[in-house]
Amino acid sequence: MEVDVARNLHGVLDNLPAGVRLVAISKFHPKEYIEAAYGEGQRVFGESHEQELKGKAEALPKDIEWHFIGHLQTNKVKYIAPYIAMIEAVDSLKLLREIEKQGARHDRVIKVLLELHIAEEETKYGLTLEACRQLLENGEWRELKHVQVCGLMMMASNVDDEGQISKEFDKASDFFHEVKERYFSDDPEFRERSWGMSNDYQIAVRHGSTMVRVGTTIFGPRVY
Ligand SMILES: *Cc1c(COP(=O)(O)O)cnc(C)c1O
């Protein structure tokens, strides 16, 4: 293995304060890299393509907690529903309804995070704060017995300006507290703030993150 996964993993873990979990983003990396991290005790991994995830989930230890971090098309939910622990990037009621349907079919509760679009970059994905408020205000999510809304996820702008990145994380944190109070004050499961990637996770943990998604720093550059 060209990459010292064990050393890199411990380097990241050493930077995380208590209460912040690491999702090791293993997309496009071989199973051997995941096994190396698993051997060091890492149990939570993130993938962004359902086929790749399926192959890895079938081949690797069953106590791995798989997170789906990419954009998920509604018609692909059925492929990952049997084993996915958390779907991190939910940005529509339509997707929530499909997760409910597939969760019911497999008699399991699937954890989800709502993805916010806060960064300045153009992207089709993620809910604006207003759209997220509307989705929660609509209330239908409360009826979905096979979906557990556990928190929020976002990506900061891909810039060098630490001030701007911090501001975006703060905006997401403030919004988390707003919706926590309004919709989830009696729900201890709603607690996750998934922000921070290789280039900004150390900033993220100072701005409310409870869950960082780090790939490159652990596994090296991805080969597409
Ligand atoms: C790929 C990816 C990551 C990990 O990015 P790195 O820069 O390699 O740490 C985190 N979150 C999402 C949503 C991703 O797609």
Note the topology.
Elements: H1 5-14, E1 21-25, H2 31-39, E2 44-47, H3 50-59, E3 65-68, H4 77-80, E4 86-90, H5 93-105, E5 110-116, H6 129-138, E6 147-154, H7 162-183, E7 192-194, H8 201-204, E8 211-214, H9 216-219
Parallel strand pairs: 1-2, 1-8, 2-3, 3-4, 4-5, 5-6, 6-7
The structure holds pyridoxal-5'-phosphate.
Pyridoxal-5'-phosphate (PLP) binds next to strand 8.
Name the descriptors.
binds pyridoxal-5'-phosphate, 38% helix, globular, alpha/beta, TIM Barrel, 8-stranded parallel β-sheet, 8 strands, 18% strand, 224 residues
**Cofactors and ligands:** pyridoxal-5'-phosphate
- Annotated CATH topology: TIM Barrel
> What structural class do the secondary elements suggest?
alpha/beta
Q: How many domains would you count in the coordinates? A: 1
Fourth CATH level, the homologous superfamily? Alanine racemase
CATH class value = Alpha Beta
Report Rg.
Answer: 17 Å
**Shape from CA axes?**
globular
Widest sheet: strand ordering: 7-6-5-4-3-2-1-8
Q: How far do the termini sit from each other?
A: 18 Å
Parts with pLDDT < 50 across at least 5 consecutive residues = none
- In the CATH hierarchy, the architecture is Alpha-Beta Barrel
Mean pLDDT: 96
Order of helices and strands: HEHEHEHEHEHEHEHEH
Largest sheet: 8 strands, parallel
Task: Describe the protein.
The chain is globular and about 50 Å long. It has an eight-stranded parallel sheet. It has a single domain, classed as Alpha-Beta Barrel (TIM Barrel), CATH 3.20.20.10. It is α/β, with parallel strands linked by helices and 224 residues long. It has helices at 5-14, 31-39, 50-59, 77-80, 93-105, 129-138, 162-183, 201-204, 216-219; strands at residues 21-25, 44-47, 65-68, 86-90, 110-116, 147-154, 192-194, 211-214. Pyridoxal-5'-phosphate is lined by residues 25, 27, 48, 69-70, 155, 197-198, 213-216.
